[in-house]
Design brief:
mainly alpha; 2 strands; 57% helix; disordered N terminus
């Protein structure tokens, strides 16, 4: 199975119908485009082989500086899903299912999805909750009730954390801890995506919660809508600008002036391989600019391919070079690289326009 070929029994029929409808509408591609796409497909295939080999016997994936980790496991699982693979089927079905089950088994009594405590457990929780929302419609009948229950408990914790009383400038967002009284855009991004993905999966997510998250994200836009910063009043960065655009687009605030202004700034100030949190950035800039479409999507996709394809290691992985991500390691970097390169496949629900 190629990375952009869905598993047969659950997706073939839908894929065939979509192909019949969409194919006549697509522009013809040049030979150069086809060769480039083949390079992308091959890179994704090698990366998935690497990730499959890195899974531990208990079903988890390890982050170098943290050990077995729910966020690392969730990023790896989403990588397989984003490339068209599903639980219980195909060459990676077993790995996907084992990873999902491991995450569910490590949910704490309060609903927190985290294995090793750190200064920011809400990062791990948001990433893992998003994975459960994305995988809920793909798991088998045996796992579906367990995944749904874990997702619902995870969403309740996110809603409780948002409801903590905060100053006006921090209202609607999230920070490192459940009871944090401030917020930042980086942590908020994962929680906002989780809420929207869970709502799309049929969970009870109040519209007000998403609206409040949207307002916080907008508050992080810098003056004249020239990108997004870490908190309201902070300067913009490419990574956080991608985060802000993605949040607004995914949460239903399409082509907001903050997003368009941020996208224009991002084209003029693109992500670099030596940027702080580069791999975090390829994920968010890839999704956000793709959702805006047009030249924003085309130029960003081209840029990410130029950065990622030459940097892939011989064994299929990507390795963080900047100190900001060095401790997270290869599984983290490889998963985010795959998630960035597979945006145009549209297999993950959150990637769909």
């Amino acid at each position: 199975m190629t990375p952009n070929e869905p598993s047969i029994s659950r997706r073939a029929a839908v894929g065939a119908c979509l192909a019949a409808v969409v194919a006549p509408l697509l522009p013809s591609t040049s030979r150069a485009d086809e060769v480039q796409q083949q390079r992308v497909d091959a890179a994704i295939s090698r990366a998935l082989e690497y990730l499959a080999q890195e899974q531990t016997p208990d079903g988890s994936w390890r982050l170098d500086g943290y050990g077995e980790d729910t966020s690392g496991t969730s990023l790896a699982v989403m990588s397989f899903l984003a490339a068209g693979h599903v639980p219980d089927e195909g060459p990676y079905g077993v790995q996907i299912t084992r990873g999902i089950r491991w995450v569910c088994a490590h949910q704490e009594s309060n609903g927190m999805l985290v294995h090793h405590r750190s200064h920011g457990p809400m990062y791990s929780h948001g990433i893992s909750t998003l994975m459960l929302a994305e995988s809920l419609g793909m798991v088998g009948e045996h796992d579906a009730p367990v995944v749904r229950r874990a997702l619902e408990r995870g969403i309740m914790l996110i809603l409780d954390a948002q409801a903590v009383r905060k100053e006006a400038r921090h209202a609607g967002g999230w920070r490192y801890q459940v009871d944090s009284r401030d917020s930042d855009l980086s942590v908020t991004g994962w929680q906002a995506l989780s809420l929207r993905a869970a709502k799309d999966a049929g969970c009870d997510v109040p519209a007000e919660a998403i609206d409040r998250a949207i307002q916080y994200v907008k508050n992080c836009s810098v003056r004249d809508n020239r990108g997004f910063g870490y908190e309201p009043g902070h300067g913009q960065t490419p990574v956080l600008t991608g985060t802000g655009i993605t949040c607004l687009e995914v949460c239903g605030e399409h082509r907001a002036e903050e997003s368009i202004g941020g996208a224009d700034w991002l084209l003029a100030n693109p992500l670099r391989y030596d940027s702080n949190y580069f791999f975090y950035g390829v994920y968010y800039t890839g999704i956000g600019m793709s959702k805006l479409g047009g030249h924003y999507a085309e130029r960003t996709q081209e840029r990410l391919r130029e950065l990622l394809l030459p940097a892939q290691q011989a064994d299929g992985c990507w390795e963080p070079k900047h100190g900001s991500e060095h401790g997270a390691g290869r599984v983290y970097a490889t998963s985010l690289a795959v998630l960035a390169l597979t945006v145009e496949y549209r297999y993950l629900p959150i990637y769909q326009r």
